[in-house]
User: What shape does this take?
Amino acid sequence: MYPKTRMRRTRGDGRLRTMVRETDLSVRNLVYPVFVDENISKPNAISSMPGIYRFPVNGVEKEAARAEGLGVPALMLFGVPKKKDRMGTQAYARDGIIQRTLRRLKERTDLVLIADLCLCEYTDHGHCGAVVGDRVDNDRTLELYARTAVSQAEAGADMIAPSGMMDGMVGAIRTALDDAGFDWTPIMAYSAKFASSFYGPFREAAASKPAFGDRRSHQMDGANAREAMREIELDIEEGADIVMIKPALPYLDIIRQARESFRVPLAAYSVSGEYAMVRAAAANGWLDYGSVMTESLTAIKRAGADMIVTYMALDYARSVQGKGGA
Ligand code: PBG
Assistant: This one.
């Protein structure tokens, strides 16, 4: 008890503060999302996400080299195809945008290449799967996801990250990969993905806004924590190697619960809207970008995430360079 106990003793000296710090955020924990667009020949700035661009296939290696040079270990790749159609065929085309990007990067980097797997960027209606009537048909979609996973693995993906929230998606992809000889390719499942308005800027970036309706028939209700644990549990049973929670900052309690309930590696996706909020406030001079970045990413790690998918990955890596960090 006070005055014998003084919590401030270990805070008064910067060296001691570092020694008692409980959470270390390393560049090694970060995954950098990258958009590749078949419709452009020069990098195209995404207005709601300052510092983030869509890259042409032959421009993406420069950004990859930047990430690699900064010690960021992995990229999460998203494609914007030239041609969108009802069944999202470019998602599983041999020469699809992601497949071409994977082959190209595979030759030029040692980064871990994670392929996001969803159809919303590839369908003309912007939904995450095959639409039958006015619904996203679960089981028809699984066949398309399975084909996409195999074609991504064939093109060189080191890991497949299904983000469509279909039931049975992880099991279907696991079986397809195994049958095609990719039993060594891990799955990072977007397991607890909430139907979130924080994805707004991403949909501008990936041109993947649904033409009608929304994603609430497959993405989770943000009010539900128990259901999130069930989703994660099922994905682990179906063979997920890493499970993800998304968004991150508004769902730290879910990350913490998952950390306490499961022993698999845990990823959190700090999404486009989280990034846009901080950048917008910083642009107005209302928040300091650098310190809010470190505080936010540390909070996600402290909550229990082993790895964080974040648009701030390169900025964070730069911020610790020269400070003995990394
Ligand atoms: C689906 C997908 C989305 C995001 C990642 N994968 C969008 C959605 O579900 O509408 C969002 C990521 C972000 O907002 O940063 N392919």
